[in-house]
Design brief:
OB fold (Dihydrolipoamide Acetyltransferase, E2P), 5-stranded mixed beta barrel, 2 helices, 6 strands, disordered C terminus
Length: about 130
C-alpha cells in the first residue's frame, strides 16, 4: 500500500512537471523595445513582428489615413493602425505600446499595428490641490 502511494505521487509529480515545462516552452517572451532602440537599426527588425513603446505624438493622429506618429527621445515612427483599432484610452501625448510589423515603404519606416495598448488613463491624470 505504501509503495503504491509513493508510485502515484511520483507519477503525479512527473505529470505536473511535464505540463509546466510544456507551458514554458510554448510561451515566447515578448520583448518590448523603445522607438529609439528599433529605429537606431531598423534593418534588424524589417518585416518582423515587434512590440514597441513610445508616446503618441501630439497633433499626429490622422483618422482618415488611420495613422499617427509614435515618438521616442531621438526618433519617430509612423504607425499604420488600419489593421487594428484605437483603444478608448488612446490619447495623443501619452505612452502607448504597439504590437505590429516594421516595414519600409518608399524609403520610410512604418509600423503596421496589429494591436495598440494604452495604460490606465487615471495613471496620467494630474491631481489639483
Amino acid at each position: 500500500m505504501i509503495a503504491s502511494k509513493k508510485t502515484k505521487l511520483v507519477i503525479i509529480s512527473l505529470a505536473m512537471a511535464s505540463l509546466l515545462l510544456l507551458m514554458l516552452i510554448s510561451v515566447d517572451p515578448e520583448v518590448q523595445y523603445s522607438v529609439d532602440e528599433v529605429m537606431e537599426n531598423p534593418n534588424n527588425y524589417e518585416n518582423k513582428d515587434v512590440f514597441v513603446r513610445g508616446d503618441a505624438q501630439n497633433n499626429s493622429l490622422r483618422s482618415e489615413q488611420k495613422s499617427f506618429v509614435l515618438s521616442g527621445i531621438n526618433y519617430d515612427i509612423t504607425v499604420d493602425y488600419s489593421a487594428a483599432s484605437l483603444p478608448e484610452g488612446f490619447q495623443e501625448g501619452l505612452p502607448v505600446a504597439i504590437k505590429g510589423k516594421l516595414v519600409k515603404i518608399d524609403d520610410f519606416w512604418s509600423l503596421q499595428a496589429s494591436e495598440i495598448i494604452t495604460g490606465c488613463p487615471s495613471k496620467y491624470e494630474t491631481v489639483d490641490n
